[in-house]
């Protein structure tokens, strides 16, 4: 096997090169190349449960591990650790506990780069002792969440709607640590992260991912170097023992298994910062268009979006009984200002109740009591609008080659009997 494609991505299988293999739980899927588009391998359901994760997560891929959370399991206001989605680009670092209960004091974080006078190393124990600790509830959403719906399809994990979660994160401000490392504000342009996960090829000289954010984002109050999720050590698959957390930006910026932060004097040029990764066409293009690298722009803030988490799609309800609908809404910068639902395919909309966020970058709970005029099949559609008046589109927004930023309205089916 000279080249392994472990991506569990049935919709692109027919286009796979003959020499490429799909494996599941370490076994080759022998006839993978013949699997019709749209058929998901049944065996994925038998894959071993992921350490620290709820068995209801949908595993898209087992090497690297990628798993999303079905919308109806995301109903908690604060996402439990076991329900936080997992998106790995490489292999989880070896030698760490599968279900951690404490922190390794001697884990180190190096601050490097052109914009610090010299590299500085902090142990995790020092970080915890030396800097003020902050806790924020922050939504993380993969830039490719919703990719499954793009047509023509985009390569990569075919995420449904569940590559999102909003737990409470505890750590220190990245700003405080950069200041302690005496970073030079006149030189600093970007930060780039490095983690301890390893490249799928096993090549120690390659890193699976090394992304970052503009220095202005790095310096925000809510930009954290975090060691706890909901007051417990981070789950192994979510970056134990240390990770970055940036609200409002694609979650790919929030480096896991964090071991180094480079303060760069230029836009960070690490793995998956360049080319077409986490970029969209600078100008809108027609679906299917091939776009040159130089016409692709880095994704910064994520768009306004919402998810109906209760009831689950397919609910059967009794006529005359109002249905409680609930979910969350979030956006990359400002707050979500209003939330509406429709039961007539978007012809008319009614207001939902919408709570304020726990803090900036936390999702906001919405609820509505919905009544249906008669028995039958309905869909409930949900639409969030941000404080700048930008609303979710009802159909797929701007097609882009890698299938990012799908913030189309979420829908569920309801049978009234
Ligand atoms: N070191 C490291 N950090 C990483 C990744 C990774 O593969 N390795 N994946 C990124 C991507 S693409 C996403 S969407 C988020 C996912 O965070 P989660 O797995 O905790 O949900 O982590 C980001 N940070
Ligand atoms: Mo991602």
Automatic annotation (TrEMBL):
A GO biological process held by the record: sulfur compound metabolic process
GO molecular function, one term: molybdopterin cofactor binding
Keyword field contains S-adenosyl-L-methionine: no
Lineage: superkingdom: Bacteria
Gene3D superfamilies, sorted: 2.60.40.650, Oxidoreductase, molybdopterin-binding domain
InterPro entries membership: Ig_E-set (IPR014756), MoCF_OxRdtse_dimer (IPR005066), Mopterin_OxRdtase_euk (IPR008335), OxRdtase_Mopterin-bd_dom (IPR000572), OxRdtase_Mopterin-bd_sf (IPR036374)
Pfam families: Mo-co_dimer, Oxidored_molyb
Cofactor: Mo-molybdopterin
Keywords assigned: Metal-binding, Molybdenum, Oxidoreductase
Domain Oxidoreductase molybdopterin-binding: 99-270
PANTHER family: SULFITE OXIDASE, MITOCHONDRIAL, SULFITE REDUCTASE
This protein's name: Molybdopterin containing oxidoreductase
Organism expressing this protein natively: Neolewinella litorea
């Amino acid at each position: 096997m000279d080249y392994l494609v472990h991506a569990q991505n049935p919709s692109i299988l027919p286009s796979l090169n003959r020499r490429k293999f799909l494996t599941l739980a370490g076994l080759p899927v022998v006839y993978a190349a013949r699997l019709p588009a749209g058929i998901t391998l049944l065996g994925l359901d038998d894959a071993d449960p992921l350490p620290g994760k709820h068995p209801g997560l949908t595993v898209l891929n087992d090497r690297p591990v990628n798993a999303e959370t079905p919308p109806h399991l995301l109903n908690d206001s604060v996402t439990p650790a076991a329900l936080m989605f997992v998106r790995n680009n490489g292999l989880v670092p070896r030698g760490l506990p599968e279900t951690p209960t404490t922190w390794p004091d001697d884990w180190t974080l190096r601050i490097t780069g052109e914009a610090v006078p010299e590299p500085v190393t902090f142990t995790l124990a020092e970080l915890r002792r030396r800097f003020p600790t902050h806790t924020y509830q922050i939504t993380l959403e993969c830039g490719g969440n919703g990719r499954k719906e793009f047509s023509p399809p985009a390569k990569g994990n075919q995420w449904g709607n569940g590559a999102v979660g909003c737990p409470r994160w505890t750590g220190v401000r990245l700003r405080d640590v950069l200041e302690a490392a005496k970073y030079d504000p006149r030189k600093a342009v970007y930060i780039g992260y490095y983690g301890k996960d390893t490249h799928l090829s096993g090549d120690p000289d390659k890193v699976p991912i090394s992304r970052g954010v503009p220095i202005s984002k790095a310096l925000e109050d809510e930009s954290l170097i975090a060691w706890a999720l909901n007051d417990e050590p981070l789950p192994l698959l979510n970056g134990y023992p240390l990770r970055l957390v940036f609200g409002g930006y694609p979650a790919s910026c929030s480096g896991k298994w964090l071991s180094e932060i480079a303060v760069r004097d230029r836009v960070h040029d690490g793995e998956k910062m360049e080319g077409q990764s986490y970029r969209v066409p600078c100008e809108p293009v027609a679906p299917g268009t091939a776009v040159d690298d130089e016409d692709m722009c880095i994704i910064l803030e994520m768009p306004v979006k919402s998810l109906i988490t209760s009831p689950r799609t397919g609910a059967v309800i009794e006529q005359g009984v109002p249905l409680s609908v609930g979910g969350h809404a979030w956006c990359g910068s400002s707050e979500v200002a209003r939330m509406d639902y429709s039961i007539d395919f978007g012809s008319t909309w009614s207001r939902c109740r919408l709570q304020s966020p726990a803090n900036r970058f936390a999702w906001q709970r919405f609820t509505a009591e919905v009544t249906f005029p008669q028995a039958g099949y309905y869909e409930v559609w949900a639409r969030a609008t941000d404080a700048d008046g930008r609303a979710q589109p009802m159909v797929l927004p701007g097609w882009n080659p890698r299938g990012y930023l799908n913030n189309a309205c979420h829908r569920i089916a309801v049978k009234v009997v």
